[in-house]
Amino acid sequence: MIQAPGAEVPEEQSEGPDGPETDEPEATRRTADNTESIRANRGWWDGNADEYQVEHGDFLGDDRFVWGPEGLDEEDVRLLGPTEALKGLSVLEIGAGAAQCSRWLAAQGARPVALDLSYRQLQHGRRIGAGFPLVQADATALPFADGGFDLACSAYGALPFVADTARVMREVRRVLRPGGRWVFSVTHPVRWAFPDEPGPEGLTAASSYFDRTPYVEQDEQGRAVYVEHHRTLGDRVREIAGAGFRLVDLVEPEWPVWNQQEWGGWSPLRGRLLPGTAIFVCVAG
Predict the structure, then answer these.
(1) CA–CA separation, 264 vs 114, rounded Å?
(2) What is the edge-to-edge ordering of all strands in the sheet holding 90-94?
(3) Any idea of the CA torsion for 124, 184, 215, 56, to the nearest 10 degrees?
(4) Left, alpha or beta for 97 (phi > 0: left; psi -120 to 50: alpha)?
(5) With a threshold of 0.85, does the pTM exceed it?
(6) CB–CB of 67/279 below 8 Å?
(7) Mean pLDDT throughout 141-168?
(8) Does the pLDDT of residue 21 top 60, yes or no?
(9) Residue 116: CB atoms within 10 Å
(10) Cα(273)–Cα(20) distance, rounded to whole angstroms?
């Protein structure tokens, strides 16, 4: 499930008789804990799942495993291992959205479980069709027994929207068997220093790469309705190691010539100059 990082600039407001008026949430940078982030993002994805699937469904496909907006396919890169070796393996997809990746895994003979925080996203998974379990749950508290999965994966799912991502790493390690792979993709951390714009204005650094303050959209009462969290590359490596994983690869996909689409802040212009996605390939110790 791919979602662009939030813009750094608040939405424009129209002027009413009593001052600025807007139906749009205010964009800001402020602290947001795990509870607030979960509540906000569950509501946001439930409310926006229909539009998301309409807008991006053609690119994602019904049964395609794509790692990010660049269009890097698991079928080509095999970061989970040889495709033929997936047969019979139990795989947990975290932040599955409409379970496109799980559907591809099932077609290879794997036994996937698709987990997402959003009930509406999972309804889209059911609409498309799923011969495997669809589970609504929080990634920081996986409802599975220890060592129940051979592999775990996440394509832009869950991690950007969780305050305590170190806890997610520990939970994934808990449910994986020793030697199991954990492969996940997120917005490349360097992108957080740049405005989330696809054109030339998105090529000039506007904030500190080291500022971990979450991006928050909030309503008029100051309640968060959408939250994203930033971690540096070093933060991610420490989380991975601290959970008992060994990092075996870090993939930064280059923007391919064939891909001319814009998706939020991702575009051919920026993709030729800045990494947009980071894929971490980890092995459970």
Answers:
(1) 25
(2) 134-136, 111-116, 90-94, 149-155, 176-187, 277-284, 245-251
(3) -40
(4) left
(5) yes
(6) yes
(7) 97
(8) no
(9) 28
(10) 38
Q: Which amino acid is at 201?
A: E
Q: What pLDDT sits at residue 8?
A: 37
Retrieve residue 131's tokens: 């011969």
Report the SS3 class of residue 142: coil
Give the position of tokens 């509540």: 39
Whose tokens are 């950007």? That residue is 160
| Counts for the chain of helices (H) and strands (E), in that order | 7, 12
How far is 201 from 272, CA to CA, in rounded Å? Answer: 15
Core vs surface per residue 162-183: b (16+ CB within 10 A) or e: bbbbbbbbbbbbbbbeeebbbb
Evaluate whether 182 touches 245 at the Cβ level (below 8 Å).
Answer: yes
Name residue 62's amino acid. D
Reference 70, options 229, 258, 233, 273; nearest CA is: 258
State the pLDDT at residue 249: 98
Q: Which helix (H) or strand (E) segment is 267 a member of?
A: none
> Does 26 score more than 60 pLDDT?
yes
Chain segment 85-127, per-residue pLDDT in tens: 999 999 999 999 999 999 999 999 999 999 999 999 999 999 9
HSE value, Cβ hemisphere, 13 Å, CA-based, for 166? 9
Q: So what's the pLDDT on residue 282?
A: 98
- Round to whole Å and give the CA distance between 130 and 106: 9
Q: Is 154 helix (H, G, I), strand (E, B) or coil?
A: strand
Which two structure tokens, joined as six digits, stand for 144? Answer: 């599975």
3-class DSSP state of 125: helix
pLDDT reported for residue 24: 87
Residue 145 backbone dihedrals phi, psi, to 5 degrees: -75, 160
**Kind and range of the H or E element at 91?**
strand 90-94
